[in-house]
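Worked problem 6 (solution included).
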Amino acid sequence: MQQRTRKILYETHAWAGLLLGVFLFVICFSGSVATFIGELAAWETPHLRRRWNPAPYSLEARYQDARAAGLTEANVFITLPSPAQPTLMFASFSNGRAHEVRLDPHSGAILPAEHGHLSEFLGHLHTDLHLPYPLGRFAIGLAGVFLLLLLLTGFLIHRKRFTELWLTRTPKTRRMWLTDSHKLLGTWGLPFTVTLAFTGAILGLLGFLGPFMALATFNGDVDAATAAFSGPPAQRREQPAAMVSLDDLRAQIQTAAPDMVLQYVSLREYGDAGAQVEFNGPIANTITYQNAFVLSGVDGRELHRVDWLSGGIWRQLFGLVTPLHFASFGGAALKWLYFLLGLCATALCATGTMIWVEKRATQKRAPSKALQRYARFAMGCCGGLVSATLILFPTHLLADGQVPFLVFWFTWLGITLLAMWGPPPRVLAKHLCWLNSLLALTAPCLNGLLTGHFPWVSYRHGFYSVAAVDLTLFTIALLFPACAPRFKEAIARSNQESASAATNSGVATTLSPPAET
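Solution. The predicted structure is:
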């Protein structure tokens, strides 16, 4: 590679990382947390915790129970039980209001419909940044495109990328340590990060790419493209009709697709002659999106079928996008792998920004005020996001499920402002480590004291998702104190360097060290 080309790639990589490093940190960190949305939903609703029971149950009987509880609308969305959420939920939307009925799938007992919103809040932080639709989705999609650009340029400028797989040199400076960490994270995590960036870009920009996909596949007919995936819409005929039992329809689907794991059922114009019943779910032991069967509610005829494993290669590849991005296949072990690799991608974004700042802070000339301010902003924004996320957990428990999400935004904003105009970043980082440790420790302790579900109790009762969240928080509480001494050593070393520089110049100084990031 020519030196000029390599320089252009290096500058592109550096400036793109500088401009988007903090933004990509937010997306990667929130995505790591969002990996366990289902488990967080079980943790945040103590009154809905149940042991997972895979025994058969009557869907028709539970639907009649829901109707008796007041759910009489013609359009109903049903979420079937899963190990993370072993309850049966019926939901309908009428006049802009949602009506939910939650049941025990086996006994039919009515459960409290109220649920926490912690998991939903954290999920939307990743999928749309809580921005209006589709602005947030497009922003996430564009971030995926720029992350691909960063990965491509980083791959090309590191000519010794294969030897860097086993980089073991002893770092002599912090910049060297950051550079080595950045290279290792980027090299080992490259396949995973590319997969997340590519699939995230497609999902975020799907609303923009949809017409182009329709143009390529259906000669520009967007309605035909929509019908190919969702089937013909239900047409209400204003003729009441008897419905086929939901149990019989479910048995029909299980016969036609025995490996399909049913997750959702949609009732459309149910009770009318034009009623439709749609069953959704992936195919077990495959990487595929939700397959679908649309049946007539009157006679059980198959009206439409969506099978992502059939059709052309582009259809099959598109069916891989969502499960590859959200780790909706492979079980708990894969989710943990995604969570850890997502944190590695988060660290990749952080170290890239820190390298840029460190390089300019250690140049012979004094770093500009703009550089120092940016370094403080990056540290406060990234560190503040972690603290703001952790503070939601004890706040949720103390507020009895009514999470005041302003606490999240004010915590994030407050720490960012404190980092920009408060104590030196290394000092603040040390205190944030202890704060995050305290918050992570407080949440599982409060969960145990308020609900009686300490990790060992949750495990004994079969609340594995709850136990996993508590143990993860305990682990985080132990890891942050391990990082705090490093900042303490860095502060002492910086003070010594400052004192030495002042002695050599003969001028007393009270300024912070140039490398203060």
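Discussion: Strands lie at 76-79, 88-94, 97-103, 110-111, 264-268, 276-281, 291-296, 302-306.
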